[in-house]
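Worked example 2:
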Amino acid sequence: MPLIPEEPQIHESAQGPRATPASGRTAPTPRPVPGPRPVAPPRPGRPGPLRPAPPVQRTPHDVAVAKPAVPGPAAPATSAPTPVPASVSAAPQIQLIPASAAGALDAAEEAVDLLLDSGRAPGEVLVITTGEQHPWATHELSFGEAAYWAQHDAGDDVFYADATAASRAAARPVVVVAVNGGSAAAVAEGLPLAHTRAGALLIVCGDPQQINSVLGAGV
């Protein structure tokens, strides 16, 4: 008779995971279980986690007796800073925009637009004309002087005034002057007045030679 080889016996302990469970679906591959994460090294320039030091047991002989503090000499009092008088405050910066008498008003309008675009509030700007009044001032004055100056006192918009009325206007951070004509006396009085009304910046649009001659003598 031919010999039938014996079938190898497989013990249950040696069997691995089944590829196909009883339900017919493939069993998911078991994922490795992450172990404890190592402690991350401290960043440069930053100290690592501090471990509390073990408590030290002291004997009664180790306890030092606190001595009463001896008062030392009192520290000298520092003197308060001396306030700076208002008369020595910084003068406003002056910017000159060359323009003819006919184009000075347009140059002043462009300067105002740039100021507003850069973040200046409309109530911080005062515009003074030495010749013909600005159209806004002419329109507002048609409703009367009281309504015109009420808008000035409100201080929430750009205010336009000629050189003769500028003496009544209050100071503002920025003053723009349009030397758009007018008499020599009006220019000679208007430019120094505008300089005193400007808190931080004075912009003058006009003939550079005429402006330098007036401001050089009046400031």
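The chain has five helices and five strands. The beta strands are 93-98, 125-129, 159-162, 172-178, 198-206.
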